[in-house]
């Protein structure tokens, strides 16, 4: 039985066009700046995001941590949303690598109140760390793929820049946000100083992320990439898939969003489950379990036996993520399996 894998969009397989491009890729030594395919990918990424330059990195986590290292100095403080990926899911990298402490601010669906952000910026005082960076996340993973309102991003960036503080955006799924809003990604990220976005999630490339920003920022970021072991040699075989992803996979994200909406609406009708449909804005569905017979972990395991893979994100919450390897027909099969499983009980 073929599993319907809704654990994450990171499970996507590269397309035939990507595999062909990887096989035929022109390569060189990227540490020397001599890989023509990597260079083309970086140029294209900068163009799409409206920034001066870009840097190809192996992972989104490395891209975020390189950005933090480049923007900050040891002993500073980084303001983040309290449920952000850079805070919860990057192995304490801000502390371990940049030697900075984190100031988490609770948000609403990932969006921090600009007034709360401004209040968290440290006054000049010998007892305080200086605020060195503000990090945002769009789309916001823990809120179920919610899109940050552009006006919220602009307001926080305005606060930050008024205080001389840079803003980094974890835009792992920024193209999901752009497709959901029907606006260019460059427009959404224009207010911020740097952006990381992933190629290996909904865009389905096998490896890689891009960090974009000013030429001066990227030149310094390149040094920190080398420090973290991200300097790759004939990396064009990977960058080639990224070029295909940027050319062919962005617009089709709308299909994933439509499948997520159908999945959410179907799950909302299942007795024992609860879905806040207002949070289903892109390709994620967060499901709260109100049937007291089930825990999230038990339901995840029961669904695995039925051929539906998903993840628990809390004691009574599961997350399902749509992507290009899940079809509309798969969604109907998953809905049937989930409804039957919940009804039957543990």
Total separate domains: 2
- Enumerate the strands of the largest sheet in spatial order, edge to edge or round the barrel: 2-8-7-6-5-3-4
Low-confidence stretches: none
Number of strands: 13
Amino- and carboxy-terminal Cα gap = 22 Å
SSE succession: EHHEHEHHEHEHEHHEEHHHEEHEEEH
Looking at the structure, the CATH topology of the largest domain is Aspartate Aminotransferase, domain 2
Instruction: Tell me the strand percentage band.
Output: 15-25%
Large-scale geometry = globular
Structural class: alpha/beta
Q: State the CATH class of the largest domain.
A: Alpha Beta
**What is the residue-averaged pLDDT?**
98
Taking the sheet with the most strands, its summary is: 7 strands, mixed
Any idea what the CATH architecture of the largest domain is? 3-Layer(aba) Sandwich
- The percentage helix is 40-55%
CATH superfamily of the largest domain: Type I PLP-dependent aspartate aminotransferase-like (Major domain)
Specify the number of helices. Answer: 14
Radius of gyration: 21 Å
SSE map:
Elements: E1 4-5, H1 16-24, H2 36-49, E2 53-57, H3 60-71, E3 77-81, H4 85-88, H5 93-96, E4 101-105, H6 114-120, E5 131-137, H7 150-162, E6 167-170, H8 174-181, H9 185-189, E7 194-198, E8 209-213, H10 215-227, H11 236-248, H12 253-268, E9 273-274, E10 284-289, H13 296-305, E11 308-309, E12 311-314, E13 317-321, H14 328-344
Parallel strand pairs: 1-11, 3-4, 3-5, 5-6, 6-7
Antiparallel strand pairs: 2-8, 7-8, 9-10, 10-13, 12-13
Helix pairs in contact: 1-11, 2-11, 3-10, 6-7, 12-14
């Amino acid at each position: 039985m073929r599993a319907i894998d809704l654990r994450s969009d990171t499970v996507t397989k590269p397309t035939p066009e990507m595999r062909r491009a990887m096989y035929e890729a022109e390569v060189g030594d990227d540490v020397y700046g001599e890989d023509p395919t990597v260079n083309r990918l970086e140029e294209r990424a900068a163009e799409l995001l409206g920034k001066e330059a870009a840097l190809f990195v192996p992972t989104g986590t490395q891209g975020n941590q390189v950005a933090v290292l480049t923007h900050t100095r040891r002993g500073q403080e980084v303001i983040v949303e309290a449920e952000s990926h850079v805070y919860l899911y990057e192995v304490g990298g801000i502390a371990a690598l940049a030697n900075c402490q984190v100031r988490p601010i609770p948000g609403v669906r990932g969006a921090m109140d600009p007034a709360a952000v401004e209040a968290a910026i440290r006054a000049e005082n010998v007892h305080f760390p200086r605020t060195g960076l503000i990090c945002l996340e769009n789309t916001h993973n823990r809120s179920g793929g919610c899109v940050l309102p552009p006006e919220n991003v602009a307001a926080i960036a305005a606060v930050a820049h008024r205080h001389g503080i840079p803003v980094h955006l974890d835009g792992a799924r920024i193209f999901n946000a752009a497709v959901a809003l029907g606006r260019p990604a460059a427009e959404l990220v224009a207010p911020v100083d740097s952006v990381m976005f992933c190629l290996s999630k909904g865009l389905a490339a096998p490896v890689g992320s891009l960090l974009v920003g000013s030429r001066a920022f990227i030149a310094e970021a390149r040094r920190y990439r080398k420090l973290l072991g991200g300097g790759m040699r004939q990396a064009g075989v990977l960058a080639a898939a990224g070029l295909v992803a940027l050319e062919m996979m962005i617009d089709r994200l709308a299909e994933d969003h439509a499948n997520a909406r159908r999945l959410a609406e179907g799950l909302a009708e299942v007795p024992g489950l609860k879905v806040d449909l207002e949070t289903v804005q892109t390709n994620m569905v967060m499901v709260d379990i109100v049937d007291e017979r089930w825990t999230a972990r038990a339901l995840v395991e029961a669904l695995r036996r039925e051929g539906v893979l998903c993840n628990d994100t809390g004691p009574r919450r599961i997350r399902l993520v749509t992507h290009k390897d899940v079809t509309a027909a798969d969604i109907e099969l998953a809905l049937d399996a989930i409804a039957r499983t919940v009804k039957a009980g543990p």
